[in-house]
Amino acid sequence: MQEDELCRKAKVLRLADINLSKLEDLLRCFGLVLHSVAHGDVIPGSYWGDCEAGLIQNRLYFRANTPVHSALHEACHFICMDDVRKQTLHTDAGGDFEEENAVNYLEILLGTALAEVGFERITADMDAWGYTFRLGSARDWFEQDAEEARAWLQCRGLLAKLDALVPPEVTRVGIRS
Fold first, then answer.
1. Which segment of 44-53, 103-112, 164-173 scores lowest on mean pLDDT?
2. CA-CA-CA-CA torsion sign (109, 115, 119, 121)
């Protein structure tokens, strides 16, 4: 399997660079189970292919070279789904524009909750990978333009669940009162 240039050259944090047990502990709280795939093997359930994480039901597949932001993004798709979608989930998480924004917001919160990642790194990696936001960067979007995404998560009780899992200052990063 030939990886694309972005997967090979992007200067982003990879799962090999962090303590996977911390990520496993965090995602287990949401019903996700991590599955490692050997280097060079196709990642099951990967929508984008190459080194991107994959989802099949409650299983998150990755390789050591999978970017942390990719694993978090796919995990957040799962977290934001209703139970019916979770049961049939295979590769394409689906969802609408509002849900995608909520996924991005939650990805930043979960990245911030991981000490080896943090707010600065997760937002920088999202930018480096090519995520696009109206205000030009993930950080600016999160701090200045993500009220609707936060409301989407709050309405579904996901922020309350996150508050129970991580220190309160993490869920308030970038949020103006």
1. 164-173
2. negative
